[in-house]
Amino acid sequence: MGFIFWSKELAMRTKIFELCKSPTAQCWLLSHAGTRITWRGGESALQSQVASWCWCWDLGASALMASVTQQQIQKFHKDGFLVLEQFFSAEECDSMRSQIQRIVAEMEVPPHCRTAFSTREEEQLQQQGSSDYFLTSGDKIRFFFEKGVLDEKGNFLIPKEKSVSKIGHALHAHDPVFKQITHSPKVQELGRKLGLERPVVVQSMYIFKQPGIGGEVTPHQDASFLHTEPLGRILGFWIALEDATQENGCLWFIPGSHTNGITRRMVRAASGASTCVEFVGSEPAYDDKQFIPLPIRKGGLILIHGEVVHKSELNSSESSRHAFTFHVMEAKGTTWSKENWLQPTPELPFPSLYT
């Protein structure tokens, strides 16, 4: 039954319930399981409406967790992906969007460090592959831009808030809002239901998919960039902060493609090479008819197996498609490749998902 709350007015009960769905409230409630609490005054937004109210929280975490069935877990293992609608609340999504607005407003990137983000191999090597700014971003919060928004000197051709393609790769470690979402009780519970014993967070990204210019993401497998021995140890969490549609660039997947291994890797280049990274092997040509679209509503979560083939198209609509995504690795019995572009550092070892 979760928590039992009391209030004289139905409207007040609704406000209390919404408050209890926030990540902060969840963590607080979990730490006070089985306790009867009286809150006098409450949040400033509630003070004028209620003098006192109370609830009793019992039966631990289960009522706050989004329900995931064994059938859904089996479907994930079969397809290599799983859609969980309404996993996060609208308030949680809005808090991430508000926080990213503050981060972008304070963004300072020297012109010589401003690079366009692309997933086309030649462009990727030319832009990120030749940039120490990218290679050393694994333990930092750094900014990458859409193609065509910078002049030859790195100056913005459009407002900077409309030019950002993604922010990566350590929001989960350095920003309190994204850290709270990444380690939220329901994410941890989902990890346990999936059988993860020692999951660690290896990276995170905020993806903007800007209206009209949000670039395509070519077909790929995450394990090509985040390689482990053995394979099958990488899992992506992709959170829709706005409705993702075919018009604004939702994800597309090839069901079952996670069972065929990988044919391409991005690795750190040898010392003295012309680029910091290079590709080994090649991505096969995929039949577009194999892909299926996965539109998802705001607050939905897509679980992504590290070897499933997926992509997204150019956003040619007038609507953005914001998403927050992070990847975890099952660390038990797993070796993280020292050839990966992303490496843990003394300042930021990969943190445990479980807190």
TrEMBL record:
Its cofactor is Fe cation. One of its GO terms (molecular function) is 2-oxoglutarate-dependent dioxygenase activity. The keyword Metal-binding applies. This is Phytanoyl-CoA dioxygenase domain-containing protein 1. 2-oxoglutarate(2OG)-dependent dioxygenase that catalyzes the conversion of 2-oxoglutarate to succinate and CO(2) in an iron-dependent manner. However, does not couple 2OG turnover to the hydroxylation of acyl-coenzyme A derivatives, implying that it is not directly involved in phytanoyl coenzyme-A metabolism. Does not show detectable activity towards fatty acid CoA thioesters. Keywords: Iron, Metal-binding. It comes from the Eukaryota. It comes from Serinus canaria.
